[in-house]
Structures are given as C-alpha cells and as structure tokens.
Amino acid sequence: MSELDTRERLEFTRRGFLKASGGLVISFSLLGTAEALIAAADETGPFAAPPAGQLYAWLAVHPDNRATLFTGKVDTGTGTQTALAQIAAEELDFPVERLDVVMGTTTETVDQGPSYGSLAIRMAGPQIRHAAAAGRAVLLDLAAKHFKVPAARLIAREGIIEVSGVSDRRITYGELVDGRRLNFAIGATGEQFDMKVAPRARTKDPHSYTVVGRSVPRKDIPAKVTGAFTYVQDLRVPGMLHGRVVRPYGIGAHLREVDESGLSSIPGFVRTVRRDDFLGVVAETEWAAIQAAAQLGSTLQPSGPDAARAKWSAWNGLPEMDQIWETVRQSSGRDIVVAKHGAVDAALVHAARQLRATYRTPYQMHGSIGPSCAVADVKADRAILWSGTQMPHETRRDIAKVLGMPLEHLELRWYEASGGYGRNGLDHVVADAAIMSQIIGRPVRVQWMRWDEHGWEPKGPPIVQDLSGGLDARGRVVAWRHHVWVPTLGDTHLIAAALTGNPAACGETGLGDPSITYAYTFPNADVMGHCEGRVGLLTAWLRSPGQFETTFAMESFIDELAAAARQDPLAFRTSHVKDPRALAVLRAAADRYGWRSRPAGAGQATLQGQVARGRGIAWVNRDGARVATIADISVDPKRAAIRVERVVVAHDCGLVVNPDGLRNQVEGNVIQSLSRTLHEEVTFDRAHVTSLDWARYPILRFAEIPDSIEIVMVNNSSEYPSLGAGEPSTCPTAAVIGNAVFDAIGVRLRQTPFRPKRLHAAML
Amino acid sequence: MMQTLTLNVNGRDCKVSAEPDSMLLYALRDGLGLRGPKFGCGLAQCGACTVVLGTNAIRSCVTPVSAVGSGHITTLEGLGTLERPGPLQQAFIDAQAVQCGYCIGGMIMSAHALLTRKPDPTRDEIKRALNGNLCRCGTHMRIVRAIVRAAKMGSGS
C-alpha cells in the first residue's frame, strides 16, 4: 500500500511541476534579477528547501485554476491552514476554496520557524501576505503581456483577470500560467520568524478585506469527520514494519540484558532493536509488536527493573514528589528581572496591611489523545521521515545529527498528528523510528503506547511562586513582589539520543523563563524569575508555557489584596491598570457578564452544607494579546466539587482572520485550562512517572463542561495587526476559578489542581 | 496462530488475517485499511477507537476480533464519504465541531449509537452518552451542538 491520501493531488504539486517542467525555464523577474531553475529534488535527494526569494516557493497555480500555498508552518489542529489560506487568497484575489495548502514538508516549504508561541498568523501571516501580493502582481504582469494592455487596465477577481470594460477579454490564472512553475524572483531576507518576503510587494489596504475576517469553513474538517483524512498515525509505506519502544523502568536506568526467549513464537515478530539503552521491537503486524514489547516490559503496570524480559539497572534519581517545589526552589539557575522599581521592602514595612502567599503548580502533560507516531525510512545515503512535529525544519536538522548523516540526505514529510499543544512526544518518536530504521534497514512505523506517552512526553514543569503585597490605609497597593521559581520550559534534548549514548547530539536544556507580563502600575514593584535548567522530569513548552501558572498566582493574589481592601475585584484591578487595551477587555467582559460591583465573598452562602455560588475574574497580557475571563461557578461543599456554569471571555488579538476559528480556539483554551485547573497533576516515584493512563491522569469530561462559553472580540479591526490566539485565553482560567471559589465559600486555593480532596482539606 | 476471519464491516463481508485474540481495532486499521477508528489508549479509556457493533458503541481496542462473530460493524466510513457525508457527519461540518479531530471519529460513532437508540436526546443525555469519550482540544461545546443539530434534523443515521 502506498501513501494513499486525499492530499495526493497536493503531493503532485511541487514534484509534479518539477517533473512536468523538465528543463523548461521560464525566467521573468519581478525585481530584475533572473534566477535559474533550482535543481529538482526527487526521491533520492539531495534534499533542500525551496528558496524563499522565489515565488514558486510559496505559490503554484494549476491549469484547472486551482492554486497551492506552500508554508513551513503546520496546523496542529488549530485551523491555521485555513486562516493562512485566507490571508493568501485575499492578496491573490483568488477563491479561498480553490486554494490548497501544503504545510511543513521540508523539500516543499520555506522554513518559517516552528509552529509554536501563537505565532503563525502573527509572524508567518505577513510573510504569506507579501508573497501572495507579489504573486498577484506577477499574474497581472503576465496578463498585461497576454492582452497587450497596461497592467493598470486589468482587474483581478476570484482567480480571473479581465481587461477593464471588455468583459470578453478575460483569462483565468490557470490559463495564464499554463502549467508552468512561478519562477519569479520576489526577494527575501532574514530567516524564520524574522524573514521578510517580497518586501517591495504592495499589499492591500486592510479596510478592503473580504476574505480575511470571514468565518471560512475549515478545509480539513470534511475529511476528518468521514475517515478520509490521513494523520501521521494513519500512514503506511511499502515494506514497512511496525515498531514499539521499550523504555527503561527507571528514567536513567541502563539496559543490563534482554532475554529474547519466547519472542520468536509471536506470529509476525521480526526482531528486537537495540543500541545501548535504546530498546525496541519490530514486527510485521502492529499487534505482534505490541505483544513483543509487552513481554520485554512495556506495560501499564511495570513492576520492577527486573520483572520483565528486559532487565534494567536500579535507578531512583527523581526527587520526592511531595518535595518537588522545595527541590525547584533550591535548584540553581539565573535570575531574570521583569520589573524592579521603588523600594518594596520599605513600602511593605510601612503598609497599613501586608499579605504574603505561596502558589504551587504541578508537572502537567500535553496529553494528546493519539499517542505520538512517526514513520522513517533510513538508507545509507538518504532518509525519509514522516512526522507530525510542530517544527519540521528543526526536527530534520536534529534527526540528521542523531543519525550522523549530512542534512541534505534527509527529507521530512509533514503530516498532521493528534493535537499537540506544545512540544510533546512527536519530536521524540521520529528519532525512535529513525534509529530503528537505520539499524534494521527497512521503513519502520513507531507509535507510542499510552503509557509511553504519559510516562515520557516532555511535561510542563512544576512552578513555585512567592508573592507579597502591601495596602495603604485607602486600600491601594503600595508594594508588590512576585518571585517565580521555574525550571526549563524548553529542554529540547531527544530521549532516543540519550538512550543511544549520544545525549548531546542535538538540543539544549535551556532555562526557565519568568513568563510574566507585569502590567500593573504599582509604585514599588519587584518581579523576578529564578530560572533553572531541568529539575526532575524532562520539561518543555506546554500551551502558554509558564504563563498559565504565573497568571494563576498573579491574578489570585490581586484578588487576595482586593478582598483584604474590601473592594470590588474588577474595580480594584482597573484602578491599578493604565493599559487601554487591558481596560477594554476587562470592561467588555464585565459588560457581557453583567457585572455588579461588590467585594468578593460578600453576602455569600456560608459553609452550612448548601451549594454556594461565586464569580471570579482574571486577565492576562500574553505577547500583546489581552484576554479577560469571568466565570460563574458553584461549589457543593458535601462533595467538595466545583462546577463551572458560565464563562465569559473578552479577547483582543487584533484583527481576527477567521472569527469562528477564533471562537473554536478560545472554547478549546477554556476547556483545556479548566481541565488543568481542576484535575491535572503528573505523579511520579523516584524511578518514573506513575500516572500512566487516563485513570491516573484524568482530564475534563463532557459531564463537567460549562453550560455556556461566551466570547466577545475586542479591537477586531484593521487598525490592530493580528496577534496570536492559540494560547492567551488559557492563562486566566485557574485564577478565575480560584477567585470564584473564594467568592463562593471564602476559601483561597493556592495550589492546582483543585481536586475534591484538596478543596475539602482547604475547607476544614 | 494467524487465521482468516470474515468480518461484516459497513455492510460488506471482508476477509481479514488476524490472530483470534488480537483486537478488532488492528483488524480494521491494519487489515482493512480503515482510518476512522483510532488507537488512543488500548485501555478502553478514551473512546478514539469507538465503532458500532450491531447498535452498541464498543471500544474496538479491547474487543478481541474473535468475539465479533457475524455481528455487523459500522465504522466512521460507514456513515458517509468525503464526497457525500452522512447527516451526522454533515452536522459536525456545519457546527465546525473539530479541532485536531483525532477523537472525532469516536465521538461521531458514540453519537450515532445514541441517536439510533434515542433519536431526540436531551443535552444531558448527549453529555452522558459521550462522557467516556475524551477530547483534549476542548471541542466539547461544539460536539454537543453538532449532535443536537443532527437530532433536530432527524438524522440519527
């Protein structure tokens, strides 16, 4: 079976062009310098990305008047494919439904930087906008030559160009390009996020947009709901074996011996694959690979380093779980100042009222529903990787180092995976597959088991935060201190590299980031991150890295101060904020909610056993996007259970490309962050993670979803350039719920998750 | 021992080679090349592998292929195609009730079983029927909306 795929037509595009065009070089130039056709990449390499300064690197127009946008950005389930197509279609004057999108594949797309940090629309959007605008100019130029009229007399609309006032003189883009590659120099400088593409192209006035700003239906959904979509988990390539990994019992343990007796009786079993402490199995069927891996110790309940047929050394190098925040606090690193002005200590001493609190948040996981998967076909002089990574071009570079092969021998073909929400197992599993394929000389598909994913995907780190604040006699904040101890949010070392005795092959440990946007106007402030390397488990970015946690502490502690000052929590905030966009989202959320001014906790039900209701508010500025969230909750004191009833989000990410796509993202952020607030904590012993399935790492279920999530878009207009929306609305949620619990029952929660046991203990 | 088994899938008898104690999911995916049912956990905890056997939503990742017998299996592919989506699938398209979509096949099959059993479910009944299906992207509000929409259109199947 080959890569049968609904995208086959798309796969045709670049390769098809290169083959079909043969030696034909059409060399017009927009900027005056003609460039020769780049050598055609094919199945054997050498492999290289297309040159960013050429129009064909971004766009292809086909004879049937469809077109293809090529982008190094990838869609991790957030709808960027459709949104970027809208941006291109807008500038190109082309029907968005006839514009297909090829993402990520390293021989077909320009490296526009990884798809993280809510940066696709913000940073890649302008690059694509300029490329498409240059494309439109090229097409008009071609049409001017075709009709022998000045370009100024031409009108481009919906993929057709006509001579103004002469309706029978019209030609489609497809006819005009006539199957040729768009070999036009448009110019590009810089790299990745900072790349400037087609700098001289004239883009449209945003006031005239008709495609950007419209709720265009997502391109991927029809295939996804009918089983026609090809996830990386669905790929099958000729000659492929199924692989499974067998990870060490203790995270740092060494492989002592492998007893292979009995494995050969598993129908379809082929062999074990070992390099140092890296162990895997390959088989003709997936079931056989699972059975063989289980015999070697890959199970839900591993019972000891010697209990299965793979024998590991004893390793107990993880910190004690209940000491993890003390461990974080004592780890070394580098201090990064976020804000430091005035004299906080003196102001605290002289304050009428002084408050202190410590906030703790645990390791959390990305928790993709589909465990990480990749396929690799590694030969002596070339390697093809099929991967759903969020950073195809980086991952290709990393795997070249892991395999010890020249970069130009590698191609990464990108296919969408189950949603990732950050750096999860997808970059690691491609290394697993590549190493196995290199050893056995055949294509290998590796999918992690559920316990591999829960146990080994990089986690969001545990964070501890100390806050103190002082109020004057009028209840204004005179001093504010917020210190965060944060392990690395971006350790990019690969598990398989470490297991094969080559831990430094690629990646870096990095340091934590303070992850705070300090946006209040307190007269004395000391805001600082104590930023550390790896502490315990492997950690990397998880949706709104660090800032979900710091917003929890900051916006809860503001609430503590407001309550101590007996002030309305909204008015307390707005009286200490000057940023007009922050004020705008706070007011928009309050208006939609119907906020009435009163201090938190006033006149609420007491702990007499009846259900109590409360409201909470919090806001964030994440990389310029402002979000304010308000929620109504109820607390059933008998069950110590929190139920979220109504959520209102006011969201300012500037101009919204696809309003329904934005709502989908915000709803997703709210529900996922509610899950992280109420349920999620990775557990571990000294050897390994122990929350290895959904029973021990529960996430939010349908029974718990809010009755409504209402979204108000603020500053959604062309004066405000588009910012990212994939993460910001995650940030306020834990503070909103904690503040609402305080409002309902007068109990302050300073540690997530708010499970019944913790709430019950806090209520005693 | 590998055996050749006959499974009735989406109205057709199909021959598939499998070990009798292997799970239905692998026969559907690897044997028959279907993509609707997904491997999510292998533990009947997430619902990504859900198919309908007879009229019941089952977890194909823990159902031995030998236990299916001559029962009629319906997968996501049995409800419609990309060119002609079924009414329930169309309701998910209309509600744009997908983010990454890895869970969505299981969601649709659980909903399909519910609507077959109860064509006009309440919102609470929908949430109960889907409570064993996990979605990590947080598409829940839209999924419920899509199923309400399908029920209103009388399009349980």
Please outline the helices and strands.
The complex is a heterodimer of chains A (764) and B (157).
Chain A: H1 8-21, E1 59-61, E2 67-71, H2 80-92, E3 99-103, H3 120-147, E4 154-157, E5 160-163, E6 166-172, H4 173-177, E7 188-189, E8 196-197, H5 221-226, E9 241-245, E10 255-258, E11 269-275, E12 278-283, H6 286-296, E13 310-312, H7 324-330, E14 333-341, H8 344-350, E15 353-361, E16 373-378, E17 383-387, H9 392-403, E18 410-414, H10 426-440, E19 444-447, H11 450-456, E20 463-471, E21 477-486, H12 495-499, E22 525-532, H13 547-564, H14 569-574, H15 580-593, E23 612-622, E24 625-636, E25 641-652, H16 659-678, E26 708-713, H17 733-745, H18 756-763
Parallel strand pairs in A: 2-3, 9-19, 17-18, 21-22, 25-26
Antiparallel strand pairs in A: 1-2, 4-5, 5-6, 7-8, 9-12, 10-13, 11-12, 14-22, 15-20, 16-17, 16-19, 20-21, 23-24, 24-25
Helix pairs in contact in A: 2-3, 9-10, 13-17
Chain B: E1 3-9, E2 12-18, H1 24-31, E3 50-53, E4 56-59, E5 72-74, H2 87-94, H3 104-117, H4 123-129, H5 140-152
Parallel strand pairs in B: 1-5
Antiparallel strand pairs in B: 1-2, 3-4, 3-5
Helix pairs in contact in B: 2-5
Structure characterization notes:
The complex is a heterodimer of chains A (764) and B (157). Chain A is α+β, with helices and mostly antiparallel strands. Chain A folds into 3 domains: 8-226, Aldehyde oxidase/xanthine dehydrogenase, molybdopterin binding domain (Aldehyde Oxidoreductase, domain 4, 2-Layer Sandwich); 234-314 and 366-456, 2-Layer Sandwich (Aldehyde Oxidoreductase, domain 4), CATH 3.30.365.10; 546-764, 2-Layer Sandwich (Aldehyde Oxidoreductase, domain 4), CATH 3.30.365. Helices cover 27% and strands 21% of the residues of chain A. Chain A contains 18 helices and 26 strands. In chain A, the strands form 7 sheets. Chain A has a 7-stranded mixed sheet, with helices on both faces. Chain A has a 5-stranded mixed sheet with strand order 14-22-21-20-15, sandwiched between helices. The longest helix of chain A is centred in the first third of the chain and has 28 residues, at 120-147. The radius of gyration of chain A is 28 Å and the shape is globular. Residues 1-42 of chain A have low confidence and may be disordered. By secondary structure, chain B is of the alpha+beta class. Chain B has 2 domains: 3-75, Beta-grasp domain (Ubiquitin-like (UB roll)); 79-152, [2Fe-2S]-binding domain (DNA polymerase, domain 1). Chain B is built from 5 helices and 5 strands. Chain B has helices spanning 24-31, 87-94, 104-117, 123-129, 140-152, and strands at residues 3-9, 12-18, 50-53, 56-59, 72-74. In chain B, β3 and β4 (56-59) form a beta hairpin. In chain B, α2 (87-94) packs across α5 (140-152). Chain B is globular, with a radius of gyration of 15 Å. The mean pLDDT of chain B is 96. Chains A and B meet through α5, α6 and α16 of A and α1, α2, α3, α4 and α5 of B.
